[in-house]
Write a structure and sequence with these properties.
Structural class: alpha/beta
Strand order of the largest sheet: 1-4-3-2-11-10
Radius of gyration: 21 Å
Number of strands: 11
Shape: globular
Order of helices and strands: EHEHEHHEHEHEEEHEHEHEHHH
Number of domains: 1
């Protein structure tokens, strides 16, 4: 890594975003893309990234953004949009101080959530005019349940809006099994397993459709499933990514031209993760495991201090229990447990100690 390839810490966008993606692919590592729902989870991600000297991807689902906005906003679309803006501003304010580069992203917007994406683009346009850089690094459209032609036409339309703001678009080809924050279904019994495996020809068509418009990445399905399920539901076949890259190499003369992302990464075998990275994956989503880690940390704290969650005064010692039920104590326990799980993720993805931040 040369000094000239180093980046300013903070949120990356445009050329710096593309430089970070290229560094991941060239270096044979990927970044965890962690779903967040509030300042506690955002801060836990930033702290873990700084500790591991790794860059990171922070992302919000529509539900996470709505939770960030708060249940007091009755209009769901408004809550999702403003919650996403609030989260993004929080990350912009703090990321540089943590000394790592952050890709700021939104996750899984299906057809019904296109108004949310367009609302964020509108807000992002205002932000760009005021600051000269975008609010987010990228957004995602998950139109994998729609016909391929409709999927790509709509992705091209949205990318044409993002590109002038220095933003990227993530698309999905094929259906990732399971359920992600209300998108999809947790019941795999009725899944069309053929659709869990993206065809390389579809990746080539997406490449030809979107490359002239702007920068994009592809969540191609190779048997991956959201959530953690018992073994045997589906079989991961990351070699599909390799076949897609090989087809584009043959037809367009470009080596590893596609920027792939790995959805449904929770509970994956380490070999499958390593293989996927070697085929051009720069990003692996992690949500289920970090949700559990946050909850587990709080659960252990509550179990260790049960009286503090029943009474303000200990029934036997008669001492005040405020220092135990103080939300900063048990929320911090959740943050630390989530951070420990992310330590493992950085290691598994090979990004530890490889931050591009100067």
């Amino acid at each position: 890594m040369t000094a000239s390839s180093k980046l300013k810490p903070g949120v990356v966008w445009g050329q710096t975003y593309q430089q970070l993606v290229a560094a991941c692919k060239a270096g044979g590592y990927a970044l965890p893309a962690v779903n967040v729902i509030g300042t506690n989870s955002v801060n836990a991600v930033l702290e873990a990234a700084a500790r591991n000297k790794s860059d990171v991807i922070i992302q919000l689902s529509s539900g996470g953004a709505q939770f960030f906005g708060g249940p007091g906003i009755a209009d769901a679309l408004q809550a999702r949009t403003l919650g996403a803006v609030s989260a993004a501003r929080h990350v912009h304010l703090l990321a540089e101080k943590y000394g790592v580069c952050v890709i700021l992203h939104t996750d899984h917007a299906n057809k019904s959530l296109i108004p949310w994406v367009e609302g964020m683009i509108e807000q992002g346009g205002h932000f760009f005019k005021q600051n000269g850089y975008p609010l987010f690094s990228s957004h995602m459209l998950d139109l994998s349940e729609e016909p391929l032609k409709e999927n790509l036409e709509e992705c091209r339309r949205i990318l044409a809006k993002l590109a002038p703001l220095g933003m990227s678009l993530e698309i999905e080809l094929g259906v990732t099994g399971g359920e992600e924050d209300g998108v999809g279904s947790e019941d795999l019994s009725g899944a069309d397993h053929a659709r869990l495996y993206t065809q390389p020809e579809d990746v080539l068509l997406a490449f030809d459709t979107l490359r002239p418009v702007g920068h994009f990445s592809v969540a191609a399905s190779f048997g991956n499933v959201h959530g953690v399920y018992a073994p045997g539901n589906v079989k991961l076949r990351p070699e599909i990514l390799d076949a897609s890259q090989a087809l584009i190499q043959k037809e367009r003369g470009l080596d590893k031209a596609v920027n792939f992302v790995f959805h449904g990464g929770s509970g994956s075998e380490k070999k499958d993760i390593a293989d996927a990275i070697s085929y051009g994956v720069f990003k692996m989503n992690i949500d289920t495991d970090t949700q559990f880690a946050f909850a587990h940390g709080i659960g252990e704290y509550v179990a260790a201090n049960p009286e503090a969650f029943r009474s303000q005064i200990h029934p036997e010692t008669h001492k005040p229990l405020k220092s135990f039920y103080d939300p900063r104590k048990w929320l911090r326990a959740g943050e630390k447990s989530m951070g420990a799980r992310l330590d493992e993720a950085f290691k598994d993805l090979g990004s530890t100690g490889r931050s591009l931040a100067a």
